[in-house]
Amino acid sequence: MADGLERLWTPHRMTYVTGEDRPAEGYEKPAGCPFCLAPGRSPEESLVVARGEHVYAVLNLYPYNPGHLLVCPYRHVPDYTELDLAETAELGAWTQTAMRVIRKVSNAHGFNLGMNQGTVAGAGIAAHLHQHVVPRWGGDANFMPVIGQTKVLPQLLQQTRDLLAAAWPRP
Fold first, then answer.
1. Which residues contact 135 (CB under 8 A, 6 or more apart)?
2. Is CATH 3.30.70.260 the classification given to domain 13-167?
3. Separation between Cα atoms, residue 161 and residue 153, nearest integer Å
4. 156 class by beta-carbon count within 10 Å (0-12 exposed, 13-18 middle, 19+ buried)
5. What is the pTM of this model?
6. Alpha-carbon distance 111 to 132, whole Å?
7. 155 φ/ψ sector (left φ>0, alpha ψ -120 to 50, else beta)
8. Per-residue pLDDT, 1
9. Angstrom distance (rounded) from CA 64 to CA 151
């Protein structure tokens, strides 16, 4: 290569970058919302890890780190203040369970937890609330993302989903 740099290609990310997978009508209505559609699809297609009464856990299609989960209410609401008490309690409990399961499966050293409320706050799908559970390890912010602006994920999403689903506690 002319510049001497090696390339790590991640063509699957172009769909996210270009917005090709966005429905024409956007995410505002449940019919076009991937968080409304995921629970009705197979675990292999949707990457749903576990299902509760009010919320479910699903792998992020564009993860920051391996095991990056989203805890989503089934109900299509954009704002945390719109959750009822049962949804709020289960979302919190499932966030704790997600952390325990990820620690068990991959020995995460820490976590970033968060909700981006609104497009201006960084929400890619602002119309449907979702809690990010991002596992972290010492040294995971190495030269690849810092200098190379590339994230290396050592496992396919389906493999990660299978490991987390197998470790998720059954009621």
1. 65, 66, 67, 68, 102, 103, 106, 108, 110, 111
2. no
3. 14
4. exposed
5. 0.77
6. 10
7. beta
8. 45
9. 7
- What residues does each domain of the chain span? 13-167
Question: Which residue among the candidates 54, 76, 128, 130 is catalytic per the annotation?
Answer: 130
* DSSP-assigned beta bridge partners for residue 79: none
Return phi, psi of residue 58, to 5°.
-140, 145
Has 130 been annotated as catalytic?
yes
What digits encode the pLDDT tens for the residues 99-124? 999 999 999 999 999 999 988 888 88
Contact in structure between 102 and 65 (CB atoms under 8 Å): no
In one letter, which amino acid is 135? P
Residue type, 27: Y
- Within its chain, how far is the Cα of 96 from the centroid? 15
Beta strands 69-73; 110-114: pairing state: unpaired
